[in-house]
Inverse folding.
């Protein structure tokens, strides 16, 4: 888990359930910081899941579509006619709702409340697969393993492996109304005993 302050990129917290340690024979320990990218001593990331639906929403709103944008969202459907950023046409994609999702007619608000997969698949097709992935990249989304994002049909359902810090920082962009900041876990570096002023700066 990671917490980033919107508008300045300060990393407020990073935490994981495993204790720090190098002994592979000791269960429940790891020397890997699971909150950051592999290049920073972390892992290859985790699939982000439904948290990626926000990028289709943002891309739709950015293109002038409103919250009332509606689709009939059945329990299961096939989605075709999507193009990647190279202009290639994607094959048809079979997508279904999770058990707790409601089928039927949804707009942006009700579909977000229910996390309705078939709605967001259609919204991504309407606004564009490439535009959805570009919105994600604009907010700082990148793969934790350093590879390029895989821009394919199921992008909107978060099948890309990202670090918790990357995702938290991306959401901080929305919380700050569009301001992107590099995540920074260091407030100050002191060379001597901290005085009152330096202590206040670190806080």
């Amino acid at each position: 888990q990671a917490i980033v302050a919107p508008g300045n990129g300060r990393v407020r917290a990073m935490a994981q359930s495993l204790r720090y340690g190098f002994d592979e024979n000791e269960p429940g320990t790891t020397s890997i910081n699971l909150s950051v990218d592999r290049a920073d001593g972390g892992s290859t990331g985790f699939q982000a899941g439904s948290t990626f639906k926000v990028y289709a929403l943002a891309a739709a709103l950015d293109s002038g579509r409103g919250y009332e944008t509606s689709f009939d969202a059945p329990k299961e459907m096939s989605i075709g006619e999507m193009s990647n950023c190279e202009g290639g046409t994607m094959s048809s994609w079979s997508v279904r709702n999770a058990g707790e999702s409601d089928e039927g007619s949804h707009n942006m608000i009700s579909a977000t409340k229910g996390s309705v997969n078939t709605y967001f698949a259609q919204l991504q097709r309407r606004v564009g697969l490439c535009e959805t992935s570009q919105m994600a990249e604009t907010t700082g989304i990148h793969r934790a393993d350093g590879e390029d994002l895989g821009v394919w049909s199921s992008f909107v359902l978060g099948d890309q492996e990202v670090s918790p810090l990357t995702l938290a920082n991306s959401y901080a962009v929305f919380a700050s109304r569009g301001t992107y900041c590099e995540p920074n876990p260091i407030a100050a570096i002191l060379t001597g005993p901290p005085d009152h002023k330096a202590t206040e700066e670190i806080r």
About this structure: Residues 164-175 form the longest helix (12 residues). The CA atoms of residues 6 and 174 lie 8 Å apart. Helices lie at 53-62, 108-114, 117-127, 129-138, 164-175, 196-202. The chain has six helices and ten strands.
